[in-house]
Design goal:
single chain; alpha+beta; 8 helices; 10 strands; globular
């Protein structure tokens, strides 16, 4: 039986500081971005809650850049022995510190929500995927490549694997990793990948006009709804798309992560489960831009028609915490 991971608050705090300072130093001394001109006056101004104001950063920065940055804050606690619920504090603390001390602009409520709540969703998702990649039986060069892949998915987790001496080590045919993640790795994993070319046209009419470009799409399912549904993010659905159009290389990222669930009905041919989920959506293509973070209450049902024939239904509704359009 694996022992609970040791909590390393000191290292987590240092890494949170690096997660704050690294992008600030890059923006300040390499990119020379004006918002990094901070002073004691700007900090005093930002500490006053009445001075908070909505910002007008571009859509991609607000709806994808900030949540991705927030995932690093979350991961500083998550990869240092803290569980999912405890690690949420890292995302919110990191977001507040950045908004208050790292910019000369007034703190923005949309940035705070995007970085904190979005950071939790992307942080836990990348943490689990990173551990899933390195939790295998491979050895030698192949195993080192999985470690590098895990580092790219969640850099904080990869760095801490190096610091803890876990990088490349295998014990009893398994990686040394978070016991919660090791248990969840027994769940079903499935993925569907599409790659090809497509034609798109931003003008009405002229069906034979337009542009032809490549695209790639991935649908990834982690876990199943009816297994360990009380554990947060034991069931994750990820949809991602990249491709050529006139706006952005990254066209879509959509993440569904279950928070907890309640069994309603269990029969051999009919199962029903009520789940609470955290959701992140980012759509940026030639047709429209849309970004949102929400919490849903979902009714998931599995119906069996014959011995090996099943179909699933999912109905969900809930509040949108923050949504944005580039208007």
């Amino acid at each position: 039986r694996l022992k609970p991971p040791k909590k390393k608050l000191g290292r987590a705090a240092i890494e949170l500081g690096f997660a704050e300072l690294t992008p600030w130093v890059i923006d300040r001394y390499l990119r020379h971005v004006d918002y990094t001109d901070i002073t004691w006056q700007t900090t005093t101004h930002n500490l006053k809650l009445r001075n908070w104001a909505w910002d007008n950063d571009n859509f991609q920065t607000n709806q994808f850049g900030h949540p991705y940055h927030g995932s690093f804050y979350f991961s500083t606690l998550r990869t240092n022995g803290y569980n999912f619920w405890q690690s949420i504090a890292g995302a919110f603390i990191g977001s507040y510190l950045w908004e208050t001390f790292a910019e000369d602009q007034a703190p923005a409520p949309n940035d705070f929500v995007n970085t904190s709540f979005g950071g939790v969703i992307l942080g836990e998702t990348t943490y689990r995927l990173s551990n899933l990649i390195v939790n295998n039986h491979s050895r030698g060069v192949k195993h080192q490549l999985t470690e590098v892949a895990g580092l790219l998915v969640n850099p904080v987790n990869g760095i801490n694997r190096l610091l803890d001496g876990k990088w490349g080590r295998v014990r009893h045919g398994r990686q040394i990793t978070d016991p919660v993640v090791m248990e969840s790795d027994s769940s079903k994993i499935s993925a569907v990948f599409d790659i090809g070319t497509r034609k798109f046209n931003e003008n009405i009419g002229g069906a034979f006009k337009g542009h032809i470009g490549w695209y790639a799409r991935a649908n990834f399912l982690y876990g199943t709804p009816f297994e360990r549904f009380k554990d947060p993010f034991s069931n994750i659905t990820i949809m991602a798309e990249m491709g050529r159009d006139d706006s952005s290389m990254l066209n879509m990222v959509s993440v569904y992560g279950s928070l907890t669930g309640w069994q309603l009905k269990t029969k051999a041919t009919n199962k029903q489960l009520l789940t609470l989920s955290a959701n992140y959506d980012y759509i940026h293509n030639v047709a429209f831009f849309y970004g949102a973070q929400s919490v849903n209450l979902n009714l998931y049902s599995e119906h069996g028609l014959k011995r090996r024939v099943k179909f699933n239904t999912l109905f969900g509704a809930g509040p949108v915490i923050l949504a944005a359009l580039p208007d």
